[in-house]
Amino acid sequence: QVQLVESGGGLVQAGGSLKLSCAASGRSFSTYHMGWFRQAPGKEREFVAVISWSGGSITYADFVKGRFTISRDNAKNSVYLQMNSLEPEDTAVYYCAASNAYRVVSTAYNYWGQGTQVTVSS
Question: Nearest Cα to 91, choosing from 27, 19, 39, 25?
Answer without folding.
Answer: 39
